[in-house]
Amino acid sequence: MLYGTTALKNDGTNITGSIVSKTSSDVGVSGATVSIPAGYYGSSISKSVADGSATTPATSITANPSISVDSSGKITATVSASKSVTPSVSAGYVSSGTAGTVSVSGSNT
User: From CA 10, how far away is CA 65, in angstroms rounded?
Assistant: First the structure.
């Protein structure tokens, strides 16, 4: 029985209901979690989970090589660079995303 409702039992005593009425404002959303507290919902309800989006910044890498010449005239060019890649996430639920570092290195003679 709903909270506050009373009924008469067979033995002549009253019983009072204890099920609390709930509305959509009682339902909570936090990220991907929807919390629905126990109780009676007199009509259907819905609660939206905001769609988020993840974008990854451009990952182009610009590196300036170093060039050396030894005493025999051998020319060596070396290049190395790294760029951290961190996605940007807007408000809402995003199911997955990654971050990392891209490294490029090498040399040529």
Answer: 94
- Count of domains in the chain? 2
Q: What's the mean pLDDT when you consider all of the chain?
A: 77
Q: What is the mean pLDDT of residues 86-100?
A: 61
- φ/ψ of residue 95, rounded to 5: -70, -30
Whether the model clears a pTM of 0.70, i.e. scores above it, the answer is: no
Please report, to the nearest 10 degrees, the dihedral formed by the alpha carbons of residues 12, 18, 24, 25 taken in order: 120
Q: Could you tell me the end-to-end alpha-carbon distance of the chain, in angstroms, rounded to an integer?
A: 86
Same domain, 54 and 105: yes
User: Which residues does 30 contact at the CB level (< 8 Å), separation at least 6?
Assistant: none
Residue type, 103: S
Q: Are 3 and 42 in contact (CB under 8 A)?
A: no
Note whether 34 and 28 are within 8 A (CB): yes
